[in-house]
Design brief:
Number of helices: 18
Distance between the termini: 25 Å
Number of strands: 21
Oligomer: single chain
Number of domains: 2
Shape: globular
Structural class: alpha+beta
Largest sheet: 7 strands, antiparallel
Radius of gyration: 22 Å
Amino acid sequence: MIFSNNYSSYPFPSRRVTVFSKNGMVAAAQPLGAQAGLEILKKGGNAVDAAIATAACLTVVEATSNGIGGDAFAIVWMNGKIHGLNASGPAPKALTIDKLKSMGINEIPSYGFIPVTVPGVPSAWIALSKRFGKLPFKEVLAPAIKFAREGYPINPTLAYFWNNAYKVYQSKTSGEEFEEWFKTFAPNGRAPKVGEVWSSENHAKTLEMLADTECNSFYKGDIADKIDAFSRKYGGFIRKSDLENYEPEWVMPLKVNYRGYDVWELPPNGQGMIALEALNILKNFNFRETNSSSIHLQIEAMKLAFADGLKHITDPRFEDIPVNKLLSDDYGKVQSQKIKETAQDYSIKPQTGGTVYLATADKDGNMVSYIQSNYMGFGSGLVVPGTGIALQNRGHTFSLNPKDANALAPGKRTYHTIIPGFLSQGKNPIGPFGVMGGFMQPQGHLQVLMNTIDFKLNPQAAIDAPRWYWVKNKKIKVEQHMPNYIVHELEAMGHEIEIDHSLGLFGRGQIIWRNPETKVLCGGSEPRTDGMIALY
């Protein structure tokens, strides 16, 4: 039972504690975004309204990791039922492998127009609002508009990532098409510093236009025209027709049962299936405590799951993905028998990215697990002139090998790293959870859930606990507060351990659990960033 009376925290260098509420809760990595969602709850909005408000604010107050020009996914528990939304956009119709090969391109670059895919974020906001929202869409977007126009002071974590991004774009982008990024996000010839106020009038005007047109302007109106013109001017592939033909997709989330709890993830093209497969493997073992043996099993199960995921995950409209087989109990048992007492070598290598995750819950038991991203921080390095919109570079994950499942094709959605998670038990929702951060995400989901279910940690302690990150082959990075004896024992098992001090590598998580008996909400927020839970 995860709702025990044990609310002691893990020995992590933070003073955060699990918080409780009965009326409503919003968890996000940026305090201003969380407070915006809470403001909407207090005005009579539900969990969906609060999620949209927070997500819109995060495009402003955490611009280093997401934006209007990115993609989004959501799992919604509403009125006793679970729903999934895939708002990831496809490759432009004009973008083909043969076209890129003729240009001498053998690997999709990280920056510029080639990796730009159709943004799905605005479509997610309005789809959620129309289906489940209570408040007018304009009212829900109002806090974000205010922050964009009036500005907000930069906090330390944001300043760190902003400065890193500035250095990257300064060194890796050149050409007139990138100038708007520097005008928008480095108006003083540098990244904003801690405590400085940053604002974007263009961003505010765009949000106002989205609010007034219910996002129609983005896909069929003035904003679509600007994206088209920008792309044509600099030899890009995305066109207004790509935007006009796009719709987000409502999907049924996938689940596996892990020790009496249903763990929900969205189906491919997201990588949530990897977390589910790893859990399905690990339920064939018994765990009592976090030690070198339990971490070894987690790592080896994650390798096996990643091997399947990186082989199969792509747009299911283009490829047949054996989801039922990969998530079956029989397959999980077979995979579990492949785990040895020593580290195994797999010739696959996950990559990195940048994302924001948020969770919301209202007094009526409705909950949202929501995630959005531009990928690789700000994305492609391109900002549509006059809009403040940074375009994502999600197409970078496509393969240019026609034989690969995730091979580029016109109108195809690529392998997606961002995944929201949800936990339930029987007919009762337990709540939303997520750990953002590229290919760390299924690894983070696995660790947080096992901390919760197997090791009986409360939400904050489950997030605080030291994490590991499988890099490739036998290479594992661990946080500096991982106990030394565990590190040495893992090394004795053949794992190549590196203690890593990087900010952001190990993901940033949020959790909200709801006790089915008392209806009380309890939550934990990420100490590795400026995370906050707003509640009342």
